[in-house]
Amino acid sequence: MKYMRNPFSTTLTFRHLFLSSPSQTTSQIASLQLNRIQNQTSPRSPEQPRRYASYKSARPAEQNQFIDERIRAKFVQIVNENNKLGPPENIVDVLRSIERPTYFLQQVSPSINGQPPICKIVNRVTAKEREKARAKAAHAAKASLKQVELNWAIDAHDLSHRLKQLKSFLLKGRKVEIYMKRKKGKRAPTTEEIKHLMDNVAEAVESVGAAQVKPSFGEPGKQVIWVVEKKSG
Fold it and tell me: Of 11, 165, 196, 204, which residue is 20 to 30 A from 18 by alpha carbon distance?
């Protein structure tokens, strides 16, 4: 199948590409890696209780390869809930010092330039709750995706009804997959019918302030797929 040129403005696409900022977690870890040699930290005394953190991007232990004994390093550095990096510690001692039924050790950054990997002590319950929240959000996003199917030789009445439905979905903030295709067993559409349908769909999408969020896919006259969504703001 052939890729088509996007009939809508590409401003939104370039804005996402060049102006989007990296995640906060990535920035924090990068900062730790940059300053880990410059910042001197004092060893934790045996009497000092270990502070347990609930790392916000942690996943349950069974879904993470680099946790507990699966961390392939003899020494690690622990970052606490305030993103303060501790001195290198023997991983065996670290694992002995935490309550294993409640917490697990997770690697959040690999070893760089001979320095031990950075790890965080994660609350199992909190990690599972966040994983459930992510799954729920993903399910909700999938459920909000609507589909509108149009055939190339659609009559004026049906086209008006489908475009009204399309605009209604977009105004409600839904993402919509538009399928323009040839009806099975029917004649091939004419060039005028193809142009008429695509022009009308593009006009309907733009009229409600929406635009494509993925490149157009397909071949006019056979099947073309547009994924559109109302622009934020």
Answer: 204
What structural domains does the chain harbor? 68-137 (3.10.20.80), 152-230 (3.30.110.10)
Burial per residue of 143-162, b for 16 or more beta-carbon CB atoms within 10 angstroms, e otherwise: eeebebebbbbbeeeebeeb
* CA dist 63 → 26, 67, 131, 133 (Å): 20, 9, 10, 15
Task: Quote the CA–CA distance of 233 and 223 in Å, as a whole number.
Answer: 32
**Are 171 and 185 within 8 A, CB to CB?**
no
Q: Are 119 and 106 in contact, with CB atoms under 8 Å apart? A: yes
Q: What is the pLDDT of residues 89-142, one digit of tens each?
A: 999 999 999 999 999 999 998 988 889 999 999 999 998 999 999 888 877 767
Q: What stretch of H or E contains 177?
A: strand 176-181
- Burial class of residue 106 in the structure, from the number of CB atoms within 10 Å of its CB (0-12 exposed, 13-18 middle, 19+ buried): buried
Burial track 43-70 (b if 16+ CB lie within 10 A, e otherwise): eeeeeeeeeebbbebbbbbeebebbbee
User: Can you give the pLDDT at residue 143?
Assistant: 67
